[in-house]
Amino acid sequence: MEIKPQSVLQGMAGAILFLAIVAGAQTPAPAPSSTTAPDSTTAAPAAPAAAAPAAAPVWSVGTVDFSGYVDAYYSYNENRPGNFGYFGQVNDLYNFDDATDQFNLEAAKLTLNHDPDPVGAHLDLIFGRTNSLIHCGACDTTLNYIEQAYISVKPPKAKGFELDAGQFVTSAGDEVIETMSNWSYSHGLLFSYAIPYYHFGVRTSIPVSKVWTLGAQVVNGWNDVANNNGGVTGGFTSALVKPKYTWNVNYYVGPEPESAGKGMTPYGATGDPTNQKVVRNLFDTTFLLTPNAKFNAYVNYDYGQNKNSAYSYYNGGGTTKVPEMSQHWQGIAVSGRGQVTPNAALVVRYEYFYDQGTQTQYVNPKTGLIAPQTLDEITATYEYKWVEGLLMRVEYRRDWSDKAYFQKGTYETNTSQDTATVGLIAFFGPKR
Question: Domains in the chain, please, with CATH?
Answer without folding.
Answer: 5-25+62-428 (2.40.160.10)
